[in-house]
Amino acid sequence: MKRLLPLLAVLTLLVPATAGAAPIDDLELLGREQINPRLTELTFETPAIDGPIGVRVLLPRGYDRPANRDRDYPSLYLLHGAGYDQRGWTEEGDAQAIIGDAKLIVVMPAGGGNGYYSDWHNAGAGGPPAYETFHIRQVLPYVDRSYRTDARRSRRAIAGFSMAGLGALSYAARNPDLFVAAASFSGAVDTNYPPFIPIGEGSSVFDGGPYAAIWGPRLSEEVRWRAHNPWDLAESLRGTYLELRTGNGLGGGEFGGPPFDAIEYGVHEMNISLDRRLDELGIEHVYEDYGPGAHEFPYYSASLRKTLPGLLSTLADSPPRLPRFTYRAVEPRYRVGGYKVAIERPALEFSQLEADRDGRRFTLTGSGEAIVQTPPTLRPNTTHRVLITTAESESERMIRSDRRGRLLIDAPLGAGNRFQQHTLAALAAGTREQTVEVVVSSLSPQH
To answer: For residue 444, what are the contacts with CB-CB under 8 A and spacing of at least 6?
Structure first.
């Protein structure tokens, strides 16, 4: 039991895998500007970001009417691409007109000119900037506290274009308890696409940082790139309503553009890759390749118009969650679906949790010493038979649930790998992983 004490301590402090150092209490509202009767721009200060940063909030028509003051609304987080900020969707993308009379609160946060919706690695120093921390741990709870949102996952969606196509799908995959729907318009949704690598490494320079500061150099930090890449995280998107829309970069599109747009051609290849990946995994999604078209706002706006009905339908009548989910992460600790996972291992690598939401069956794949806390779904203070199976062994334990009906289960994953996954050293040595399956059954009352 001694070797598990550090992991038990971690579980008592566990926060979401994407969390950085700054919770919502570190968020300070500096100013509020009323752009028009429905549109407000908020300016914040936070340790997660260097300098003030803006967020636009579009309220539904009639939000302030007395008859609607007891009404809660679904929310859509609408993210911008490279070169834009919180103003892009309303000043150039015609978002307010597109949303129209939809009963929807739309949140449009700034995400850096080339920030890629990530907490930057910064050669191990971390953020600022920490865009994911700002958006997920600060803006989202601020909006839920300050406006009449329905804060359930089933009533929250996210979408974005270009860089923010990655951001929307990455946020949805990395935080599957938060978003029921996600959409990408001409999104950079597979960073494994070789021509993107120099763009991904150089983007931090255009956002005011040093070279390769976002995820690190690809050669030595590939696993950090994959940790935010929708293609690699696709299994975590199962049960999320998904739409992907892209052009192919050729001239002659509905809204004009150059004879050939290399950026749109590149994201087109990325979208083909993700579409195939989702098909391989049997994950339902809407995919539209609309042919000729450029990497320009009229095409993103048209995609939002076409996608909005599916988002609204999902938000209005979201189907129940799948009884079983899959979650992939490189972080050594995370919480998802009511589970908490902490893994002690020498090097950064993926682990994967496949679990029943009732807490009675899960498999965990990876390496190292792991401990899993199940959701609070069992009878409190009762003893349960737990069958733990690996490729080499099978054991049975009696474990007592805590006062909230949770179990703490040691999940042996074998010796941890010495080298960070996807490095040259790891390729030479091989990355070993083990799967442990856990099945929980209740004992008869006399036990």
So the answer is: none
pTM exceeds 0.85, yes or no: yes
Residues 129 and 273 occupy one common structural domain: yes
Helix (H) or strand (E) holding 301: helix 297-316
The model's pLDDT over 267-319, given as tens digits with 9 standing for 90+, comes to 999 999 999 999 999 999 999 999 999 999 999 999 999 999 999 999 998 87
Q: Are residues 298 and 351 in the same domain?
A: no
- C-beta separation of 165 from 185 below 8 A: yes
Structure tokens at 238: 């199962």
* CATH number where 120 lies: 3.40.50.1820
How does strand 383-389 pair with strand 394-400?
Answer: antiparallel
Last residue of a domain, one of 316, 348, 367: 316
Condensed to tens digits (0 to 9), the pLDDT of residues 320-361 reads 778 899 999 999 999 999 999 999 999 999 999 999 999 999
Smallest CA-to-CA distance from 387 within 362, 356, 353 is with 362
CB 212 within 8 A of CB 204: yes
Q: Which of 374, 373, 365 is nearest to 342 (CA)?
A: 373
